[in-house]
Amino acid sequence: MLTNAQPRSERTDDLAARLRVLTAAQVLRIDELLDSAGEYGEVHLVLQKSQLRYINQVRSYKADCDGLPKK
Q1: C-alpha distances in angstroms, 35 versus 38, 59, 64, 70?
Q2: Confidence of residue 71 (pLDDT cuts 50, 70, 90)
Q3: What is the pLDDT of residues 18-31, one digit of tens each?
Q4: Number of structural domains the chain divides into
Q5: What is the pTM of this model?
Q6: How far apart are the C-alpha atoms of 34 and 4, rounded to whole Å?
Q7: Mean pLDDT, to the nearest integer, of 46-59?
Q8: Distance from first CA to last CA of the chain, Å, rounded?
Q9: Residues 55 and 46: beta-carbon distance below 8 Å
């Protein structure tokens, strides 16, 4: 069980030991993509033979009256 009382490195090692499909590096990359996805973004994971092959990030924008994404 992960607790905040444990040092960060121990929590990361514990999590890495429990992962079955993803690596700790992949989890961090997915977290980064989720953080940068924006208000309407999506992150898709593509598996082949139980292994992560692709991470697709989709960004959607709510169109205003001129149809262009707001910056």
Answers
A1: 7, 12, 24, 19
A2: low
A3: 998 999 999 999 99
A4: 1
A5: 0.66
A6: 23
A7: 94
A8: 42
A9: yes
